[in-house]
Amino acid sequence: MGGSPASRGGETGADPAALRHVREQVTRALEAFLEGQRPVVLGTAGELGPGLAAIDDLLTGGKRLRAAFCYWGWRGAGGGSDPGIFTASAALELLHASALVHDDVMDGSDTRRGRPSLHRQFSARHSEAGWHGSAESFGRGAAILMGDLLLCWTDELFHSSELGAEALRRGARLLSQMRTEVMAGQYLDLVEQARGTGTVDAALRVARLKTARYTIERPLQVGAALATGEAEAAAAAYSRYGLPLGTAFQLRVDLLGVFGDPAQTGKPAGDDLREGKRTVLVAIALAKAGPAEAALLTRRLGDPLLDAEELEEVRSVISDAGALAECESLIERYTSEALAALEDAPVTPGARQALAELAVAATSRIG
Amino acid sequence: MGGSPASRGGETGADPAALRHVREQVTRALEAFLEGQRPVVLGTAGELGPGLAAIDDLLTGGKRLRAAFCYWGWRGAGGGSDPGIFTASAALELLHASALVHDDVMDGSDTRRGRPSLHRQFSARHSEAGWHGSAESFGRGAAILMGDLLLCWTDELFHSSELGAEALRRGARLLSQMRTEVMAGQYLDLVEQARGTGTVDAALRVARLKTARYTIERPLQVGAALATGEAEAAAAAYSRYGLPLGTAFQLRVDLLGVFGDPAQTGKPAGDDLREGKRTVLVAIALAKAGPAEAALLTRRLGDPLLDAEELEEVRSVISDAGALAECESLIERYTSEALAALEDAPVTPGARQALAELAVAATSRIG
What we know:
The structure is a homodimer. Chain A is mainly α. Helices cover 75% and strands 1% of the residues of chain A. Chain A contains 16 helices and two strands. In chain A, strands 1-2 form a two-stranded antiparallel sheet. In chain A, a hairpin with a 2-residue loop joins strand 1 and strand 2. In chain A, helix 1 packs across helix 4, helix 4 packs antiparallel against helix 6 and helix 5 crosses helix 6. At the A-B interface, helix 1, helix 4, helix 6 and helix 7 of A face helix 1, helix 4, helix 6 and helix 7 of B.
């Protein structure tokens, strides 16, 4: 999905109270839920102990951006202090963890949040045990199953929030739509990568459908739907805020994937380039670079063996073509658009303030 | 999952009214649901048209065994003629379709229900379009996403059944548990295959956890929980009936996978042997065969290039060792045990009759 900067951002200025408070509560909800699943899982297959531990690890990381947007979507639409909202919001983090696990299988990624990706962990387990058959295919199979498990748990956790049948019904409708959209958006991304047409417009469309909706617009609207049956006006404002902000967020992720510090991203430097991701950043670079530079970029993209020097060369092409600067300016423009939409949004003042903080947290350089 | 005989069984004596009636209603519910998803999916990514068509195709096949058990579990526990039960039961078929799609990716299977498996269909699309990158990895990625989509839709369809908030809450709790158990059971299967210890006990444990619960016991109990808050006695009877019957069902699937007619199974003859599946049948054969025959069996199992003659040789080893006969006798014994459990089960007479018919349908040679 490429939609999650890996840093926990715990100590940075980009970790505002709006995020921190939600993260603590959501983390608690996730821990309690996993604790409850343990006997069911291990009662069926005690062999899954290490798999559960890997899921624990995976769920420890992350900023909990989607949960935070869900929570503030609720507060903005008039939702009160019912602790169930943290449970419902936490469900979005299970959904996201599932997406990360399956994405890493699809992309063949080796690392996630500074650790081996889940399928690599399972492959290693296979190799260490000296089991029969292909360690790679064992790892892939196990990770597909773990991603499925996380996906199933999304609903279970969501419905366990005790926010009332009507509220859950309204929220679940949007949660379902959001999931269908993100799967369709991811397919679109696969097709765009395969087609390799690589226009800026196509890349922006993918960013909007795959990331902006899934990370910001829909989580906000799920929260609003949980809060009230009359969330139309808030939901519309959340679209006006969420779609540009989500696009800016994806652009920031793209930049971090190429220019980011591995300590911050949790991935080896240049991984996105080695995987050949056709991001908006790359599309802009290809459109603006001279013929020789564009040819070099095309040749290098997706070469899994790029060394440090070659990576630096690719970064220079992107930067010299003005793509880095243009991305930064797009991020600024989209973020401003989002903040402007907040001004007259029919939401509570506290939420308005929090959403302004979250806009910075989601798009700032320090991830 | 290896848990679905592919035949539609439409014309055979093993397609009793108990199954036929449910199938028609469930098929209608699935069609209506897919029709409703179409605009959401295509509105996000029009490119997914062929993917939806492939899902349509996949959902056309199958006996709808799981839906039928859910429906009769409901009826047996006193559930009435509310049409919502067909909708809720249909959700289990979406879950199963998701499992089939992901299983085929995990096993690298080429065919499903007589057609190319979903990942092969997507790979072919990639090749035909002359897209960039690996067609295989595109197909795998797209199929993972389609399986995820089907898995998400399970809940959406289940909760759209309008059976009332309390009933849905009870049913969803069991549905969740069932999904967690099946994922854990599948992982156990992966580990058992990789370990290759291949004892009969280990294979029976996998059959019970992965298939018997998922195909029969839990669907019955989901139906019962939807029908009433006082389903304890019925649920216990469903376990006594469902666990042995489900084990017999898996043994029948194992036999069909080795000795079945491709026209009936929808898979090339001997596919299970080429994939090297460590079934109960194989475990029995390995335990009973002489050293030379066991060595031949071990050598041939999992060889993807086995030709017709070599397959026949493997079949002879299994059959001559007495494993075929022992499997048939186990099927008979487990089925009798299930039928005996029905006799004093606290369920309605109509359901008792239907479950007796389903026991035959799930385990008879004509699949």
